[in-house]
Amino acid sequence: MPADLYKARPHAALNRNLDHNWQQALLKTSSERRIAVDIELGGWEEQLILTMTCEDGISVTHTLDGMFDVATNPEKALNNLKDGVAKLGQTLYYARNIDVKLADALFVPNSLLNQFRRETADMLDAARLAQYTRGSRKAETVPAPVYPDTHLSFLANVYNHKARAFYHRHGVQLIDAAYEAHEEKGRCPGDDHQTLSALRL
User: Fold this and answer.
1) b/e for 47-63, b at 16 or more Cβ within 10 A?
2) Mean pLDDT value of segment 42-69
3) Of 7, 42, 69, 125, which residue is the least packed, with the fewest Cβ within 10 Å?
4) What are φ and ψ of residue 107, in 5° steps?
5) pLDDT tier at 194 (50, 70, 90 boundaries)?
């Protein structure tokens, strides 16, 4: 035990130099926002059909033509297909549900499956963007709400004409210039605090 620990008193806060759980927590992404996608893969030996539907209900369907043989190992081929369409790591999406609707498990080269998935995800990006509607700004209240004070001192820090116009629009009649405007002579923002401190002494 380090000698300094013998000086520690009850209830003293101790900081550890190495905390594996803490280090692992720091490595995790804490604010990642991803969109759930339901994936359906169907088709037959001459064509694959991939459908992606995001959590907002927007759906796209993409096809891949080719000659896809029935796999000699159906279980392995089915797992490869599921894994292949679910790899959405570099996109905004994550696979929530995967449904493979093929009469037979087909062998599809990974390169083709990866390109097929990427193109479908790009189509979903475009479809979501096309349906995006920018929110409208709430109309300003008429008449404008009234500010509770009719006089603002330099402490309100009204420095430019736009700020001054804003307060006038909301009922303020007298507005002192901000301290930065150097129109208050012999007075500093901390004067009131310093005076109060002096009185307490």
Assistant:
1) ebebbbbbeeebebebe
2) 96
3) 7
4) -90, 120
5) very low
